[in-house]
Design a protein that fits this description.
This is Acetate--CoA ligase. Helix 5 packs antiparallel against helix 6. 33% of the residues lie in helices and 22% in strands. The chain has an eight-stranded mixed sheet, with helices on both faces. A seven-stranded mixed sheet has the order 5-4-17-16-18-19-20, sandwiched between helices. The chain has 21 helices and 32 strands. The chain has 652 residues and is an alpha/beta fold. The protein binds ligand 6R9. Ligand 6R9 binds next to helix 12, strand 20, strand 26 and strand 27.
Length: 652
Amino acid sequence: MAGTTTDLERQLAELLEQERFEPPQAFVQDALIKDRSVHEEAERDPEGWWREQARALHWFSEPEQALDDSNPPFYTWFADGTLNASYNCLDRHVEAGLGDRVAFHWRGEEGEEREITYAWLLEQTQRAANALKDHGVGEGDVVGIFLPMIPEVVVAMLACARIGAPHNVVFGGFSAESVRERMEFSDAKALITVDGARRKGKVAAVKAAVDAVGMPVKTTIVVRHTGLEECPMGEGDVWWHEALEAADPECAPAQLGAEHPLFILYSSGSTAKPKGIQHTTGGYLTHVAWTHKHVFDLKPESDVYFCSADVGWITGHSYIVYGPLLNATTSVMYEGAPDYPHKGIWWELCERYGATIFYTAPTAIRACIKWGVEHVEKADLSRLRLLGTVGEPINPKAWLWYWKVVGGERCPVVDTWWQTETGGIMITTLPGAQAMKPGVAGTPLPGIAAAVLTEEGEEVPRGTQGLLSLSRPWPGMLRTLFGDDDRYVGTYWEKWGPETYLVGDASKQDDEDYVSVIGRVDDVLNVSGHRMSTAEIESAIVSHGKVAEAAVIGAADEDTGQSVAAFVTLEGDLQGSDELVAEIREHVAVRIGKLARPKRIIWADDLPKTRSGKIMRRLLKDIAEGRELGDVTTLRDPHVMAQLEGKIKERA
Ligand code: 6R9
């Protein structure tokens, strides 16, 4: 085995020299798009082109209008059309005779399997929609969803969409406290949650945790999943299965304006308060339907698609639920962790269900590399024909490993750049039409325009690093931040004016228009492809009784891209200890979620601040990553740095 690894390493090292990979001929032959004429066609008339793509949806009344840019940056798309998201995802497929098609091959952590058909989803969605109505939820009311990766999470989202109640899904890895806060911010009327969630063989009592913090909602609907004995049901609590059973089986889809909000999804920004990113119906669905089909070269009759994300993130919303269902896709949905019950579970599932398309995050690929090729090689992956990544920059080494070991050098790899705010994929390669460059996402998709700018808004020369911007509205764009138009304008449209969207990523563009994305330029961390705010973690740490002050930075990390490092000063003359490290980590887990726990805590007597009192994060980053210190002359107290450096050396 050792011999094979060396061979592989040598082969990968050779491939590292190659900057450009043409799409494999066998793939191109059957590809939906084989050249760049679509890009050109869209470029001639972007609005008209998107208007054409909107025809892929079913409209109760067809829109005449595409983009309305009369009040920037409050853009609208297809505003005079009416439609329903759940009708588009379910009814029309069932009406077309596809009711028996599997929408999800679902696999539970314990190995149980459920085949979820389109007909079943439609039946359950109508009942759930009526159950929501029975419990006082109406059009425009926000409904919170805090569920693990079980089919009911899809039903819950589509039931909300059916009656025009925007959903607010919270990732299952967040703490109950985070859920409470998000319910409060979004003024949610009801919460759909679960008795317990399984993680690597253990069961977490979710309903009990939710009760312990108290939710500001009238009704809590509880899915019975693990059958936990201790699932407290109080006043205002209803069992999902009982509510659905009692509900009318038919619920006509609400005919909603294209700009009706479909969902809110909270995402981390550069302040402690998460941003309620608000998406609407017609434009968002048009964008995710087109991109899901063409970026993944989807043939719904023969493909089996597996996206390993969680529905609680935008990737799950757009490319597990809405995009795939709009295109009548058969998908694989897995409840568990990538290394449970064993490190080859993804590949076992690919073989078992015949997955042809696989979409994951670079951090997961790096974990697989560490676990070893043997876990991949055990499975027959010969049906795979396309691979994708999302969430963070992929280093060329990981790209090549994915291409070679998982894809057998037959499967194009699409490196898809986008954000919660963009709704859908914006920059990538179309797999049958464009060469791939490892570590470089690709070009703006048809209809999308991007540019790399200076702080002042001038385009930088090709090959030079600058700030990524999007220079034209697109249908899947966020419309505002929930209840906070000012913050929406201030965050994205103030720097360069209401026509140029500020992405927040540093990037470069080459002579062929390919964009490589380097990383965030603001105080947003990217740990394993999960977005987190330094300010949010800092305020969680500071809320611990023994902590005086904290500064959080993202330190470069080989496995997770970035990791959370916290510089902490303690109250009075308290001393740091291993117990206190554990206490603070647990405190962060309770306040935000396990994913936000600092990997390293560094005790500091003081934090380096400018004379105006701003924490110098750049210096902390230098320290945490072991670099020579840059200019410290603007510091209020330059000795602070010497003390901190001393601490780090002690540890090393
Ligand atoms: C979909 C999603 C968005 C941020 C984004 C950027 C980073 C996402 C990337 C990528 C390089 C890619 N990012 N995809 N960086 N290459 N292919 O991840 O949304 O959670 O909102 O994060 O993630 O920094 O600005 P979200």
